[in-house]
Amino acid sequence: MLRPSLVSSRSTAIRKMATSASIRPFDPKTQSASKLWPASVTKPPKVGTTRVFFNADSVTALSSLGPDFAKKKGATKREVVRRSVGSAVKEITRVADEVTEVVVDATVDPHAAALYNFTLKTDPPSAFNPNLKEPIPEKVTLKPLDASVEWDRGVVYAKAQNLARTLMEFPANMMTPTVFCQRVQAEFAGIQNAQIFVRDEAWAAEKGMRTFLSVARGTPEPAKFLEIHYKGASTENARPLVLVGKGVTFDTGGISLKPAADMKLMRGDMGGAAAVVSAALAIAQLKLPINVVVLTPLTENMPSGTATKPGDIFYAMNGKTVEVDNTDAEGRLILSDAIYYGSTEFDAHTLIDVATLTGAMDIAFGEVFTGVFSSSDALWERLNAAGETEYDRLWRMPLDEDYGPQIYGSNADLQNTGGKPGGGCTAALFLKAFVHGLEEGESEKGLAWAHIDIAGTMEATRPTAYLGRGMTGSSVRALVEYARRLAEQ
Ligand SMILES: [Zn+2]
C-alpha cells in the first residue's frame, strides 16, 4: 500500500531498493484520491501533475487526470490519460533513475511514444549508434497492470511512431536513400506476408519516371525507389491501399538553394517516406487483413553542375510536361511519378500520399494540425476519425481547380510552383494531375485519394506530455488507426 508519510524524492537509502515503479492515473476529485493527496480535492491539479511516492521496495507515481476528467469523453478522454501517463513516466525517470520497469495502471491503451530521446552522444553509449554490434536494451520497460490486446496494440503504434522519428532524426550522411532501404529491410526481417523491392535509377528510367529522376540529377548519391507489398487480405488479389511517401533524404533546395539557417531540419524531408514505411510495419505486425502497397521515391536534392535548373522542362511518367520553376519544390516532382505509378499499377481502391511538402502548412497550422487534401469526403472522414482517436490531428484543406491558374500558366502543362498564396493548395492540385482513375464522390470502381502535408507537424519545437522535442513521426498513428478500421469493415 501507499504510505504518503514516506514521500521523498531524495531519500536514497530507501530508493536503492526499488527498480520497479507503478503509475496510477487518478481523478483528483474522487474520494480515493483525497486520502493520498488531500489537497487535490479542493484544488485539483492539472493533467499530468505527478507525485512520486517511495516505499521500501517500490516507487508509485500518482498522476492527475485533471479537474474535469469526469466530464471528458471519447478521444479527448483517451488523450488526457495519455498525457497523464506520459508525464508520470517522465517524472519517474527524472527522480528515480534506478527504475527499470514501470507498470501502468490504465484502462486505456498507451498509443503514444513516451520515453524517446534521439542522441548520438557517446557517453553513455547511445542505442541509436548505427555501428552497434549488439543492441543496447531499453533502460526502462513499460508494462500494463493487466495484460490486454489494446495495450499490445498501443505498443505497436508507439514503436512505429518512434521508428519514423528515428529515420527522420538520423543526419543525412547516415540516412541516404541506400541506408534508408537497408534499414527498412532490417526492420521487416521476419515479418510475414511482406515483400520488399529496392528499385534503382535504371528501373525508374525504364518506367519513365523523369520528374523523379530530375531531382536526383544533382547528387552523386544513388536514388532509390522502395516498394513494400504487404498481403494480409484473405484473397491475394483484393484491391490494395497504396501509401506513397516523399523521401528526400536531404533537401538543400537544389540550385534554388535554401538559406543556411535551420537547413539541417531538411534531414527530415523524408518524413513522408518514414511515416508510410513505419505505418506499414505496424499494419503487418498487427496482421491486419488488408493488402497494402508502399511506394517511396528516395533521393537527395543537391545543387551541382549536373543539377536541374529553374526553367527546365521534363516529361513526367504520365506524359505531361512539367516546368521546374523552383528546384526547391522538388517534393511534388518525385511524388508525381510515384503517384502515377501507384495509381496505374496496383488497382488500388485508395491512395494516400504523405509528404513534408510546403512551408505554407506551417504558416497555416504551426505544429498542431496536419493539412489534408482529398477528392473524397468519405476518405477524409475516415482519416479524420482515425486522427481524432489517436490525437494525431488533421484538418481538411481545399482541393480546388480555382487555384489552377497559379500553376497552369507556364510553357509546360504544369509548373512546380504557384507563388506564395495558397502554397499548400497549389501543391495539392499539382499532385492531383498525376492521380490516375481518380473518382470524386462515391464509387465502387474508382480511386479515392488523399494528400497529407506534414511540413508543419514534422518537428516539435516544444515538448508535450509524451512527445519530446524533435522529429515527431507525425501521422503514423493516424494512418495505422485508419488501416485498422479499414480492416474491420
Ligand atoms: Zn524543397
How would you describe the overall organization of this protein?
The chain is α/β, with parallel strands linked by helices and 489 residues long. It folds into two domains: 1-147, Leucine Aminopeptidase, subunit E, domain 1; 152-488, Zn peptidases (Aminopeptidase, 3-Layer(aba) Sandwich), CATH 3.40.630.10. It is built from 14 helices and 19 strands. Strands 6, 7, 8, 9, 10, 13, 14, 15 and 17 form a nine-stranded mixed β-sheet that branches. It has a five-stranded mixed β-sheet with strand order 2-3-1-4-5, covered by helices on one side. It has a three-stranded mixed β-sheet with strand order 11-12-16, with helices on one face. A hairpin with a 4-residue loop joins strand 2 (50-54) and strand 3. It starts with 11 loop residues before the first helix and ends with a helix. The structure holds zinc ion. Residues 251, 253, 301, 328, 330 line the site of zinc ion. One of its GO terms (biological process) is proteolysis.
